[in-house]
């Protein structure tokens, strides 16, 4: 039995209200269960009760056992002086207030129906499952599910915004610089994301602002900082980048060998995802636009995003995967599926934070944007589909990822609307 479950029972009055009595036999009528307190202090604030026809307004404290009152030292805490009722699962000792009067106590297990407990056991006490409600979730009411997915999606945006706000604080609210760092991280995908972010943070963005007008200098900056220009390669293009990077190092006082190239992984990657190709694409993108952040914030149609990210790498990278390995000639454009990932993981979260800063979050616009994208394909989304919860777009797949990772994994069924609904049935 979890105390959180007792909170749930009290909050939603999932007990026999008509015959509720204290352990001393006094009649208890719950007029208002109170406000659930997630901070320190009593569990429910401003509750309104009638105990033996006397009206009481105050706080309610909930424990598994009555003796937990003393185990938690509440008798020494002034925050608990206004408690008017002690709700416990098991009454094992009397609790006295400072005036030596016994604190009215309800032993809740005597008033909870068996079907509520059966639903609780289904979610929490059965054999290990992929998610606790995997046998029931496919039958959940579609209206409830859709509303919960929307809430989950904005929770996911809030969680992503934490990292963005930290980056903004470090950069003195330079959104253009933070956009570059986030894009760099996502250009690296899951395997090289951390290394790409380290690359983006290895120099001040003001340096990129100064060199972005010259694509060769910009690529020299990125490849040099990433540690790819420290070798001896018999190629004129490579040697020209080395020369440009040496010049930039002196001019902008860049830290020599900011990174070692072994930080970037090539093993078992498709050649078009090689970090060298992605760095070349990132450099080309930033040489094409002088104010990419403003351009992206003004765009709301998916096709316009695809147009913005339509770039072609330079002549050398059209025929190479690395500085030393050649490829068949191709423009190595960003694919639509890759751009979709950038929109999902970088642009929409950054739009969300930017609109928050301006005090005008357009939730409808953000939803409309992500609903235009195809759902992601991964093991979590595939498993939900097996359970009859099939994501129709990226909005739903993002919400399902939030559900699985922040609720199901931690068995937070009591905080989940799906779990709430199943427990109340």
What does this protein structure show overall?
The chain has helices at residues 3-11, 68-71, 114-124, 142-170, 175-187, 189-200, 205-211, 215-225, 236-252, 275-288, 292-297, 302-308, 315-318, 336-357, 363-370, 379-386, 394-408, 417-424; strands at 28-32, 35-36, 44-51, 54-65, 83-90, 105-107. α2 (68-71) links the parallel β4 and β5 (83-90). α4 crosses α14 and α4 (142-170) crosses α17. Strands 1, 2, 3, 4, 5 and 6 form a six-stranded mixed β-sheet that branches. By secondary structure, it is of the alpha/beta class. The protein is built from 18 helices and six strands. Helices cover 48% and strands 9% of the residues.
Radius of gyration over all CA atoms, rounded: 29 Å
Low-confidence stretches: none
Structural class label? alpha/beta
The number of distinct helices, counting runs of at least 4 residues, comes to 18
Q: How many β-strand runs?
A: 6
* Average pLDDT, all residues: 93
Describe the main β-sheet briefly.
Answer: 6 strands, mixed
* Helical residues, percent: 40-55%
N/C terminus separation: 19 Å
Order of helices and strands: HEEEEHEEHHHHHHHHHHHHHHHH
Approximate shape: elongated
Approximate strand percentage: 5-15%
Q: In terms of topology, how is this protein built?
A:
Layout: H1 3-11, E1 28-32, E2 35-36, E3 44-51, E4 54-65, H2 68-71, E5 83-90, E6 105-107, H3 114-124, H4 142-170, H5 175-187, H6 189-200, H7 205-211, H8 215-225, H9 236-252, H10 275-288, H11 292-297, H12 302-308, H13 315-318, H14 336-357, H15 363-370, H16 379-386, H17 394-408, H18 417-424
Parallel strand pairs: 4-5, 5-6
Antiparallel strand pairs: 1-3, 2-3, 3-4
